[in-house]
Design goal:
This protein has 373 residues and is α/β, with parallel strands linked by helices. It has two domains: 205 residues, von Willebrand factor, type A domain (Rossmann fold, 3-Layer(aba) Sandwich), CATH 3.40.50.410; 126 residues, no CATH class. The protein contains twelve helices and nine strands. Strands 5-4-1-6-7-8 form a six-stranded mixed sheet, sandwiched between helices. It is globular, with a radius of gyration of 21 Å. The N terminus is likely disordered.
Length: 373
């Protein structure tokens, strides 16, 4: 088996047993993009892991510019790993790490946890598992996409990839394949055939290609403001502290990868896709996801437990105002930064994870009437 770790950027450690029918999400909307990332964690594809970790925020930022019928897109991401010996063969050497979620910090956290270990890569099996076990939208006007990356033959395993890909297509799910190696080898090992069967796109990348970040004068201030945003979060709920720590840890992880990654993460944190209404009272109040009158005091942060209802509301609105002010500053700086980078950008001619994913999703989304700025 080749030294390999197949990943794709861009979600709790729980294995979902196979079902005979597709569970459907309960959202009544047609402006949703669902991305299921199926990453091969066999052997040593560390370069691809690094691409996934570092490019998640850039991919999200690109998709965040889209809308449909004037409404901003809702992005949900799911994460699978497959091909790892640590996962028993009777489980298909695969694991659903995170089901569809808008919790991008959770996706980032799990990407940083990924480790490679030799195994057998069953592409058909992991595709079928994703098709049958994830909560896909029923409405086909939404964009439902699987990205699977790898470098071993697409034909391995006891589930025929043709059956899996056709089932995906029947349910309006596109399967895009990313081969880590030469374009022609990916064709001969059936990666292109898999994409063709499920209305998808076949791509190849160099998983060891170094990601180039162009430093801009705005970077330092964007990073500072991105960290400053954390002070505007009001945690609530049983897992409040855990979620706050996760947010801070993903800032730290991004900074350790490179300042450029933290810049992209900070831009994400200033936009619509970074939504934490499940543990942050500012987002929850804005989305109407919480009733302050019914929220038990033991679920509130210490500073709010003694407040009356009016004081609680005023405190939330104060943090909301501070957050919006910081977010607006980040967005203004990012506009300046984008213009600066456009002037400095040099075409490398190399395909990296973010480039192939962004271009492919944009093309497929436009067919569903999503518009991009």
């Amino acid at each position: 088996m080749k030294p390999t770790f197949l990943t794709l950027a861009f979600l709790f450690s729980l294995f979902i047993p196979q079902r005979t029918s597709v569970p459907e999400a309960d959202r009544a909307s047609n402006n949703i993009i669902q991305l299921a990332l199926l990453l091969d964690t066999s052997n040593s594809m560390d370069g691809l892991i690094d691409q996934a970790k570092s490019q998640l925020w850039k991919i999200v930022n690109e998709l965040a510019t889209s809308n449909k019928d004037g409404e901003p897109v809702e992005l949900f991401v799911a994460l699978y790993e497959y091909g790892k010996d640590d996962i028993p063969r009777n489980e298909g050497h695969l694991r659903n790490i995170v089901p569809f979620t808008r919790d991008l910090d959770k996706i980032s956290e799990e990407l940083f946890k990924l480790r490679t270990n030799g195994g057998e890569e069953f592409c058909g099996k992991v595709i079928l598992s994703a098709v049958e076990n994830l909560r896909w939208e029923k409405e086909n006007e939404n964009l439902k996409v699987i990205f699977i990356a790898g470098n071993e033959p697409f034909t391995q395993g006891d589930v025929d990839y043709k059956i899996a890909c056709r089932k995906a297509s029947e349910r309006g799910i596109i399967v895009n394949t990313i081969f880590c190696g030469s374009y022609d080898e990916g064709i001969s090992t059936m990666w292109k055939d898999g994409a063709d069967l499920a209305d998808g796109t076949y791509m190849n990348i160099d998983q060891n290609q170094e990601i180039v970040h162009i430093n801009a004068p705005q970077d330092e201030e964007i990073i500072r403001l991105g960290i400053e945003l954390n002070k505007t979060y009001i945690v609530y709920g049983i897992d409040a502290d855990e979620n706050k720590v996760r947010q801070e840890e993903q800032d730290k992880n991004s900074l350790e990868l490179s300042p450029g990654v933290m810049v992209e993460r900070s831009v994400t944190k200033s936009g619509e896709q970074y939504n934490n209404s499940s543990w942050d009272l500012v987002d929850a109040y804005r989305d109407g996801a919480v009733d302050l009158k019914k929220l038990e005091s033991n679920l509130l942060p210490e500073e709010m437990k003694s407040m009356n209802e009016k004081e609680k509301l005023n405190y939330i609105k104060k943090m909301q105002s501070e957050r919006e002010s910081i977010q607006n500053k980040i967005m203004q700086l990012n506009e300046e930064r984008s213009k600066y980078i456009a002037k400095k950008m040099v075409e490398t001619g190399k395909n990296t994870l973010d480039a192939v994913m962004i271009n492919t999703v944009k093309q497929q989304a436009e067919k569903k009437n999503f518009k991009f700025k």
